[in-house]
Amino acid sequence: MSLDDSIEKYALWNASLYGGKASPGAVIGKVIGEFPDAKNDMKAMAAKVNARIKEVNRLSLEEQKGLIAKKFPELLEERKKERSDELKELEGVDLKKGVVMRFAPSPSGPMHLGHAITGGLTSLYVKKYGGKFILRIEDTNSDNIDPFAYDQLPRDGEWIFGNVSEVWVQSDRLKVYYDYMERFLDKEAVYVCTCSQEAFKECSTKKEDCPCRGLSKSEQIVRWKNMFDKKSGFKEGEAVVRFKSGMQDKNPAMRDFPLMRINDSEHPRQGRKFRVWPLMNFSVAVDDIEAGMTHIIRAKDHADNAKRQEKMYKALGLSFAPKTYFLGRYNFEGLELSCSKTKARIEAGEFSGWDDIRLPFLVALRRRGYQPESLLKYSRLVGLSLTDKSVAAEEFFKAIDSYDKEVLDPISKRFFIIRNPVKIAVDGAPAQVVELDLHPDNEKGGRKLKTASEFFVDEQDYKVLKKEGLYRLMDCLNLRSEKGKFTFDSLEYEKYKEKGAKIIHWLPAEEKLLKVEVLMPDNKAVECLGEPMLERLKVGDVIQAERFGFMRLDSKNKDKLVFWFAHN
């Protein structure tokens, strides 16, 4: 197999796994595995990969799969092998049409880690089968909405999932819900109930119909219209629309449950334009019908809601029945994911905003430089499971950081950033122009530093250097520490390998160095010095600071560069 064949093979394969769109980094990694010598000319190989990916991404998912079957059938055999991170197959998938699925984060704030895990599964299945992925903002309850969420949730969804097809906002769809309610009224599947909560509860306890249930269709329609009449109709709390599920159901929660209510509160998006609002079960059922939802992944505490919605489908005479998969509760120990609690702390000044570096919200993780692929990998490994799970924050981030490093390590450029710098003098050190790699595999050379006899080293490394022995300044020279002084020993790495104690990163004191601030996850800033090449970075670039960690350039100020730290 030639290099070009390998590029085509893995471009097709990666595209087929991710909804028809291949990623250059993933393809390059696979190709290097088969052709290690290709690393010698990474620019040429990257150009070939990008060109082939453009061709592959123009093909439909079916065309991509067809080419794999024709030219690279061994990949299909490999796919058949069971792997620990393989997504379970969904039942009843039309492989020609794909699936229609949805994810509905609460509009009480932006997405957090829990959304990445649960919503990630839905996203991965749409990528697996093709089809439509709807991000739905369920904002029919005005009591718990942060207006910030209307813009931020779609941004979060596009970043973490990358395959959102449409964004639906329920408060923009009130007239659709009214039309459906009139269909239910016409079929006498619902009634307008004016009983007090206490009176209805008594009827439910006795498994008896309330007086409102038996009123005629015409009377129900009159009552329905009166719900909209603020002047002479019902007041808030005086009437609700109930579904005729049966007052004899064994489960009290299933007995003639409510579908619509009056709410005169001002809505963050709609103001006071509407006063009759759907409750969750009704708006969800209507939206799923309208979207042609095929499969749903939802928390297992929505099992009763799924049954309620099935009853509504049948009441309309629909054979519509999306396949539902339930998930157990996933609890993050030591992480506060409550939007309402976090918002209160933001308003109190404890946090700077939703993107405060200490918070487990996606907008903060993105700002630190985390990659969505790492969170989606975790989601895939969790998979479809009914079992409740708890994971400590430290354990979770240990896994995520490992996955994120797998993504970033092959693509992030390397630079020297020195924390709490200490200047040292190395007697006898020769003047040099040291050329360092921007990446050890993919981009040789590119960083040139002029050195003489004075260097900056990390404060912690300086403490190590006080111990007598042979040390190496990375890719520069070997020095000997004796009696508190540092003396040039040699240039060759082989000499260091014999009896060297430690390799240390450094910066030349003679160069015009940059002031750098690194904001750490505990919100403490570390003052550093950085090499001049950092000036060429753009805001948003993620780098690997040698022997420090991965970080994202957050801002370029006149006097310094500010990075946000991700992880080691």
Record the SSE blueprint.
Blueprint: H1 3-17, H2 24-34, H3 42-58, H4 61-71, H5 73-80, E1 99-103, H6 113-129, E2 131-137, H7 148-160, E3 166-169, H8 174-186, E4 190-193, H9 197-206, H10 217-226, E5 240-243, E6 258-262, E7 276-278, H11 280-291, E8 295-299, H12 303-315, E9 323-327, E10 330-333, H13 339-347, H14 362-368, H15 372-382, E11 389-392, H16 393-408, E12 413-415, E13 417-419, E14 421-427, E15 432-439, E16 443-451, E17 454-458, H17 459-465, E18 469-473, E19 477-482, E20 485-490, H18 493-499, E21 500-504, E22 506-508, E23 514-519, E24 525-530, E25 542-545, E26 549-556, E27 561-567
Parallel strand pairs: 1-2, 2-3, 8-9, 10-11, 12-25, 14-20, 18-21, 23-27
Antiparallel strand pairs: 4-5, 5-6, 6-7, 13-24, 14-17, 15-16, 17-22, 18-19, 19-20, 23-24, 25-26, 26-27
Helix pairs in contact: 1-2, 1-3, 1-4, 4-5, 6-15, 11-12, 15-16
Please characterize this protein's 3D structure.
With 568 residues, the protein is of the alpha/beta class. The protein has 18 helices and 27 strands. β18 and β19 form a beta hairpin. α1 packs across α4 and α11 crosses α12.
